[in-house]
């Protein structure tokens, strides 16, 4: 299976047209059709379906295209790594970060990395762990900082713990329950679910009694803590957020921590990357910076 065949399939998926794909690849349409036929004969399946509006991938084509995209990204990274090694060329690293990591770890690590490797363009993307893991697998992210699901990352991913993030219960200062001292006092409150179900922002995980957890009133769902910050000062809702996030933004927005006697969970923040593909040299240098910053947070030299 040739790289040009994989590139052809990805171009067809992107353009949805034999003619447009031929123009992008700078080949004649008959030559493109011949190459597609060769690829279909090799895999033993129809990869493209012709429609009145153009073409679309058949199911087998979608399966192959998903793998092809990863292969082509790895080829691009190999070229980038060689250019970095041979000519000191500019490079790019893409990092996904969760809210706690963005506040506590990323600023120092990014500053340290940028000072040492100014020729590397660092792209930082907000991401929550369910999406982060898939984006790592697809090659969209080189690595990600954040929690992991209970099942872990999977054998195809390398994970390393960095630090623990304390969760706190928050509300606006004028909330009628701002003076609550026990979780049991919040059982009838209106809650906000931040991020994925069963994640660090899910209040149902705070209650050991399953019936009580199921009975919680989840009035609002937010995908990100930034959205939570925009809404909570105006609403009588109870929510969960990282302590560092509240310390940084809460006072200016009139948000307060509920001083509960109940112990609250800590979330382990990991750095995750693919185990079956080597990091580029610039990405490895970023990993070193992240580990160094995590060691400082933990009080180690």
UniProtKB/TrEMBL annotation:
Show the Gene3D superfamilies listed in the entry.
3.40.190.290, Winged helix-like DNA-binding domain superfamily/Winged helix DNA-binding domain (1.10.10.10)
SUPFAM superfamilies found in the cross-reference section: Periplasmic binding protein-like II, Winged helix' DNA-binding domain
Matching InterPro entries, A to Z?
HTH-type_LysR_regulators, LysR_HTH_N, LysR_subst-bd, WH-like_DNA-bd_sf, WH_DNA-bd_sf
Domain named HTH lysR-type: which ranges? Answer: 1-58
Q: Does the keyword DNA-binding apply?
A: yes
Q: Which GO terms describe its cellular component?
A: cytosol
Q: Record keywords: DNA-binding included?
A: yes
Q: In the record, what terms sit under GO molecular function?
A: DNA binding; DNA-binding transcription factor activity
The protein's matches in Pfam families, at most eight in alphabetical order, are given as: HTH_1 (PF00126), LysR_substrate (PF03466)
**What UniProt keywords apply to this chain's record, in alphabetical order?**
DNA-binding, Transcription, Transcription regulation
Similarity comment text for this entry: Belongs to the LysR transcriptional regulatory family.
> What's the protein called, per UniProt?
Bacterial regulatory helix-turn-helix protein, LysR family protein 127
Q: Which organism is it from?
A: Achromobacter xylosoxidans (strain A8)
């Amino acid at each position: 299976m040739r790289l040009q065949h994989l590139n052809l399939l990805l171009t067809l998926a992107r353009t949805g047209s034999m003619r447009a794909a031929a123009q992008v690849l700078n080949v004649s349409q008959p030559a493109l059709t011949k190459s597609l036929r060769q690829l279909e004969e090799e895999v033993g399946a129809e990869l493209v379906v012709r429609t009145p509006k153009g073409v679309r991938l058949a199911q087998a084509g979608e399966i192959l295209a998903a793998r092809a995209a990863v292969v082509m990204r790895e080829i691009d990274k190999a070229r980038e790594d060689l250019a970095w090694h041979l000519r000191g060329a500019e490079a790019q690293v893409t990092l996904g970060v969760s809210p706690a990591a963005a506040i506590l770890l990323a600023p120092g690590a990014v500053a340290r990395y940028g000072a040492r490797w100014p020729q590397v363009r660092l792209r930082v993307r907000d991401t929550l762990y369910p999406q982060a893991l898939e984006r790592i697998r697809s090659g969209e992210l080189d690595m990600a900082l954040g929690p992991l699901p209970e099942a872990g990352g999977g054998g195809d991913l390398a994970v390393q713990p960095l630090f623990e993030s304390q969760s706190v219960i928050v509300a606006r200062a004028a909330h009628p329950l701002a003076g609550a001292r026990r979780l049991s006092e919040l059982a009838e409150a209106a809650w906000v679910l931040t991020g994925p179900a069963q994640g660090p922002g899910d209040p149902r995980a705070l209650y050991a009694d399953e019936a009580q957890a199921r009975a919680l009133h989840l009035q609002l769902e937010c995908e990100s803590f930034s959205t939570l910050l925009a809404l909570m000062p105006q609403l009588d809702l109870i929510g969960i957020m990282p302590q560092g996030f509240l310390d940084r933004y809460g006072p200016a927005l009139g948000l307060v921590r509920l001083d509960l006697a109940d112990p609250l969970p800590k979330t382990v923040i990991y750095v995750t990357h693919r185990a079956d593909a080597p990091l580029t040299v610039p990405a490895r240098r970023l990993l070193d910076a992240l580990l160094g910053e995590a060691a400082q947070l933990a009080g180690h030299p």
